[in-house]
Amino acid sequence: MLNEATIAIIKSTVPILKDRGTEITKRFYELLFSSHPELLHIFNHANQKQGKQQAALANAVYAAAAHIDQLPAILPVVKQIAHKHRSLGVKAEHYPIVGQNLLAAIKDVLGDAATDEILQAWADAYGVIASVFIEVEQSMYDQAEGQDGGWEGFRAFVIQKKVKESDVITSFYLVPQDRKPIAGFEPGQYVSVQTKLPDDGYTHIRQYSLSDAPGKPYYRISVKREDAIGSRPAGKVSTALHEKTNEGDVLLLSAPAGDFTLNRDDKRPVVLISGGVGLTPMVSMLNTLVETQPHRPVTFIHSAQNGSVHAMKEHVNRLAQAHPQLSVRYCYAEPNEADQAAGTYHREGYVDADWLKTVIPSTNSSVYFCVPQPFMAVVNSALKACGVADSDLHYEFFGPAASLEQPALQTQP
Predict the structure, then answer these.
(1) Do the bridges between strand 393-395 and strand 169-176 make them parallel or antiparallel, or are there none, so unpaired?
(2) DSSP of 107-162, one letter per residue?
(3) So which residues are the catalytic ones?
(4) Where's the Globin domain (predicted)?
């Protein structure tokens, strides 16, 4: 436990972390990878280059400092990060390395303002915070390995089937190479895929939502090919999966993880909102709902640029025809000529509060949404404007977590 003096020092640094947190975490990763380049086999290089990981860590450090006297308040965030760490293979032995480089980054960025007293307080606080992470993650490792069909680390899966779902999204049906049972999962969870690319010396790990209901003899992931846009290069792993893997090839998977999951004990109406490839966990939830709760009202809302990039539309439409409790609504930002001729979408433009008020059957609904980050704050604000309670809003970011309070760009999928 931390004493009152240490807690007071940590809380006094909160304004500094708010202003210079990203600067500190950027320096932290520079120091970390310089002294321990082997950790580049764990971290997502694209998120590093785009600054997403630095921002996510800065938010986490800021939250830990602000709540240092009431750490149970950030336990949900700890568990969310711990799920990702377990699926990536972050272990207890990594924490001293992280702590050493975080303190060095604080000293480098703050200079003389980082007194010995402040550094010692942060060393003590980091030890307490790290112990919480280690304990939570160890229980997750034990659960992942000890469950029926579970395993430790990464397990070999064969691509049984590869299905093109749209111009940019392809599904991969994965079965265990050892033909042994596979672990169950909760709708909304993901797996980590570990790959080695022939033109790159690093191992790359990417997390993909499971896109079918649990209880099948396979896992299905549905991957968007991330093409180059402006200064952003094409996604190495997604491009390789689309263009260089075939049925019969082997992928390495972690056991399922994640805390963005469907509450199957809730009997109220449920609303599923997705944008672009964010429909993958939503389809897993939808398939589960129609299989296990056939009388529960479901509203499925999907936003896409147009029909050519709208994946799994025929599947969702078939479910809607077979299940009268399911209502579907599609929003296209820029419908093409084929879309306009067929009239198979319900709104042109973007999702907003006015439209959602006409679509959501009741504000007493449980709402799940997964959309690209610039769209997150828009959807969150719109749902609140509709009268949906904060406690009924459940969401997941693409990649590292960010803040829903950040100004939203006026772009949607």
Answers:
(1) unpaired
(2) HHHHGGGS-HHHHHHHHHHHHHHHHHHHHHHHHHHHHHHHSTT--SS-EEEEEEEE
(3) 95, 137
(4) 1-138
- 270-395, CATH topology level: Rossmann fold (3.40.50)
Enter the tokens of residue 182. 């596979």
Q: Whose structure tokens read 């263009």?
A: 243
Angstrom distance (rounded) from CA 59 to CA 56: 5
> Tell me, what's the pLDDT at 46?
64
Which CATH class, in words, describes the domain spanning 155-253? mainly beta
Residue 413 annotated as binding site: no
Is 369 annotated as belonging to a binding site? Answer: no
Q: Closest Cα to residue 174, out of 184, 160, 188? A: 160
80 labeled binding residue? no
pTM of the model: 0.91
Question: Does 398 carry a binding-site annotation?
Answer: yes
Type of residue at 130: A
Q: For the range 30-37, what are the long-range contacts, defined as Cβ-Cβ under 8 Å and sequence gap of 24 or more?
A: 30/105, 31/101, 31/104, 31/105, 31/108, 32/97, 32/98, 32/101, 35/97, 35/101, 36/97
Q: How confident is the model at residue 413 (pLDDT cuts 50, 70, 90)?
A: very low
Tell me which CATH code domain 4-146 carries: 1.10.490.10
Domain span(s) for CATH 2.40.30.10 in the chain: 155-253
Residue with tokens 């293979």: 89
Q: Where in the chain is the domain with CATH 3.40.50.80?
A: 270-395
